Structures are given as C-alpha cells and as structure tokens.
Amino acid sequence: MIKIVVDAMGGDNSPSANVKGAVRAINEIKDAELVLVGEETQLNALLATESYDKARLSVLNATEVISCNDKPTEAIRNKKDSSMCKAFELLHSDESARAMVTIGSTGALLAGTVMRVGRIKGVKRPAFCPILPTVVPGKIVAICDSGANVDCDPQWLRQFAVMGSLYLNKAFGIENPRVALLNVGVEEEKGDELRKAAYQLLKDTPSVNFAGNMESRDLLSGDFDLVVCDGFAGNVLLKSTEGACLELMRMIKRAMMSGFTSKIGALLTKKKLYEVKDRMDYNKYGGAVLLGAAKTVVKGHGSSNDEAVFHCIEQAYKMEAGGLVDAIAAEMQG
Question: Which has the least CB within 10 A, 118, 230, 329, 334?
Fold first, then answer.
C-alpha cells in the first residue's frame, strides 16, 4: 500500500477538485491510501456524496490555508495549522507516508520541502520537472528545471539531467530518454559559459543519453524526452509554450467562426480539432514533480480540476511504485 498525502485546500478549485480527484484515485488505484488534509467539515460534506473505499481514504483536520498572497517562508513558519503545513508535518513524521500532492502555492511548497522534507543525499538542488504533450501522439516531453532554481551552475544541470532521466524511466517507462540542453542554437559551441560547461558535462555522463543542444521552437517536436535548463529559462519556456498553444487554439476558433463557409468547415473538422485540444490539455498530464526531494512531492497547476488532481496523485503513485527516490539516491551516491 502506497500512502499519499493530499493538501485538499490548495488551488483555485479547492476543496472540490481535490476531493473528487482523490476519490477517483482511490477507486482506480487499488493499492493506494490517501490522507486529505483540510477543513474536515467541508471535506466530510463533499465525501458524503461520493462512493469509495473508506478504509483507504481519511481526513486530517486543518483550520488554515496558505494563499498565493502569503510570503512563502513566513507562511510555512507561522501558519502551522494550514493544510499545506500539516501535510508536510505528516509527510515528515509518518514513515509510511511516501508522497505529497498539492495544487497550492509554489513558493510555500518549495519552502516547506526544504524545511520539512529535505533533499536526497548528494542532490545539490531539487528541481521542478513538468510534463508536456508533443506533436507526436502519445509522446511527452519533460522540462527540468521549470522554476525552482533561477541561477544554476553546470553541475546542477547535470544532476537535473540524471534525475529527469530516472523519472521518465521509472514513472513513464521510457527507456534511455533522449536529453537535450536548452540553448540559443544547436551547435556545440553555442551559448553562454553555463551552457558550454554543461554541454561538456552532459556529454561525459554515462547515465544520460545526451542528444545535444535544443532551440526552444523544437520543444514539442517529439525529438526529445527531456529538456534541461536553469529554472528561469525553463519557466519562460514552459509558460510561453502553454500561452502560445492556448492563443493558437483561440485563433483557430475565431477563424472557424468568421463566416458561413468557415463554419461549415468547422463542422467537418470539429472531431479532429477537439482531438488536438484534448491532447494539449494540461489537466491530463499531472503536475510538476520536485525531483531531488527526500520524499515524492508533486505540484499541480493552481487552476487544476479534479481530473488534473487525479493525474497528480497517479503520478506520485507511479513514482513511488517505480522506486524513483531510491533510484536517484543510488545514482547520486554511486
């Protein structure tokens, strides 16, 4: 049985999305145990309308909520009865609790992970690693780091490549993931000193299937499984890609509705357009894993719905079932 703690009050659609996502996880993942942390009256009222195995889902009461307006470190220190703090406390104190999922404050999650969970021995910095779909059906690409570390050194980027490769293998079954270094050109000599030094390290790391530099326009090409970068560049890459995809879908919709002939065309292509829209929906791909933490931590998008919460829980479960934390620990100490 894999025990996962869920911060049920984090995010824009809490607690409903967290409760519904957790119930679906209990019903679909038969050896998962979940603890929902939050205001128990609200959670129990929502759970009363659901059908699930009550032996594998429990509630831990928390009377406060950390919002995105709170200063992260101060919130972790002062809001001791918040759902996120109590989730961290359970993750820290209960050896059987192996993972945590939240769609709450990113800053508070980082602060809490550092203060209450800690790093795997040998890991210099934990890094966020979200998943995106690509233009190739069924193929995904991961970005590591996407915001945890704004300033990096080459050794950190090498570790991001190692941890990200293990993640894709253990959680998604991708054998020998192709790893690219985000850069301003594909040639080996391109980039600043950080990128040039990281390139050489990645070339000389046996556990990394290094495929060279990648320009940002090729992120969704399907040619790479993992893109390594500092957190600043990774966050810009992630959000600009998400924004471009959303705007493109809006442009297509406006074009299709612009006249009678266009509307006829829209009716004929509606099924295919919805297939593309469905494939690009982030709610179907879980959250950003915080690789390098001593226990599994998954951060979902703040506006996640219940489907996204389910996939975050499923993601945490797969990481634990695959022994990812132990695999990273063995690699870092080897």
Answer: 334
Residue that is written with structure tokens 């998604």 in the block: 172
Asked if the model's pLDDT at residue 201 lies above 80, the reply is: yes
CB of 132 closer than 8 Å to CB of 219: yes
Ordered domains of the chain (ranges, CATH)? 1-123+292-334 (3.40.718.10), 131-282 (3.40.718.10)
Residue pLDDT, tens place only, 304-320: 999 999 999 999 999 99
Please tell me the predicted confidence (pLDDT) of residue 181: 98
Q: How far apart are CA 83 and CA 39, in angstroms?
A: 8
Q: What are the two backbone dihedrals, phi and then psi, of residue 65, each rounded to the nearest 5 degrees?
A: -135, 135
Type and span of the H or E element at 3: strand 2-7
Answer for the pair 134, 222: CB distance below 8 angstroms, yes or no.
Answer: yes
**16-28 and 306-321 are packed helices; what angle lies between their axes, rounded to 10 degrees?**
50
Rounded to whole angstroms, the Cα distance separating 118 from 193 reads: 30
Q: How far apart are CA 283 and CA 131, in angstroms?
A: 11
The yes-or-no verdict on residue 170 having pLDDT over 80 is yes
Grouping H, G, I as helix, E, B as strand and the rest as coil, residue 320 is helix
What pTM did the predictor assign?
0.91
**For residue 127, what are the contacts with CB-CB under 8 A and spacing of at least 6?**
144, 145, 146, 148, 149, 156, 159, 160, 163, 164, 231, 290, 291, 292
Residue type, 224: F
Whether the CB-CB separation of 10 and 66 falls below 8 Å is answered with yes
DSSP labels for 77-116? Answer: HH-TTBHHHHHHHHHHH-TTEEEEEE-S-HHHHHHHIIII
Beta strands at 288-291 and 127-129: parallel, antiparallel or unpaired: antiparallel
Token pair for 60:
């831990």
What's residue 187's pLDDT?
Answer: 96
* Distance from the Cα of residue 134 to its chain's centroid: 16
The token pair that represents 168 in the structure block = 């894709």
% the chain with pLDDT above 70:
96
Q: DSSP alpha helices (H): ranges in 124-153?
A: none
